[in-house]
Amino acid sequence: MRIISGLYKSRKIIAPKNLPVRPTTDMAKESLFNIINNLYYFDEISVLDLFAGTGNISYEFASRGTEQITCVDQDFGCIKFINSTAETFEMPIQTIKSDVFKFLESSKIQADIIFADPPYDFTVEQFSKIPDLVFSNQLLLEGGLLIVEHSKHTDLSNVSNFSYSKSYGGNMFSFFEITE
Fold first, then answer.
1. How far apart are CA 128 and CA 38, in angstroms?
2. pLDDT for 54-68, tens place per residue?
3. Which of the residues 13, 95, 114, 134 could staple to 48 if both were Cys, CB 3.0 to 4.6 A apart?
4. Residue 47 belongs to what domain range?
């Protein structure tokens, strides 16, 4: 994986092969960040990266100037890799080793962008639990976005607070917003 833009543009990050991850493809990540770039100033937002895996998305935010980034993953190897990479590049990334659902149930951390990249084999009910917990616990700041990455074979358009989705190859991003 590589960092697409910003301070660390073109830097390659090689994750250990034994991590239980499926990093977002560069093409999908570039498309996603083109959308975000048109909506926010990266140096003015906070980010919560759920099911963070390798930290791929968080590195991109950090490279573009975001200074408040929290990664949550339950795998110790993933957390260790993110901490090591963040330290190497001097990126302002905090990590929390936790089951994401338990974290969402008790967290008080609010963010402008909450990005979730759960396993693609989740059921629609499991995917739906993410926005349900984010919105019921008021973790998304006003004007913010919850972005859930999933397979193009999964339809989240009937989930509460759904706004729109974008498809890139086999990847899909569903966007959720606070509704009146």
1. 27
2. 999 999 999 999 999
3. 114
4. 26-176
* Three-state secondary structure call for residue 161: coil
10 Å Cβ neighbour count for 152?
A: 13
Q: Which strands form 162-168's sheet, in the order they lie side by side? A: 93-97, 68-73, 46-50, 111-116, 140-151, 171-176, 162-168
Q: How many structural domains is the chain composed of?
A: 1
Cα(32)–Cα(51) distance, rounded to whole angstroms? 17
Tell me whether residue 4 is in a domain.
no
Predicted confidence band of residue 76 (pLDDT cuts 50, 70, 90): very high
Asked whether residue 62 is domain-assigned, the answer is yes
pTM: 0.95
Q: For the domain that residue 115 is a member of, what is the CATH number?
A: 3.40.50.150
d(CA 137, CA 110): 9
Please report whether residue 169 resides in a domain.
Answer: yes
Q: Label residue 100 left, alpha or beta by phi (over 0 means left) and psi (-120 to 50 means alpha).
A: alpha
Mean pLDDT within 31-56: 96
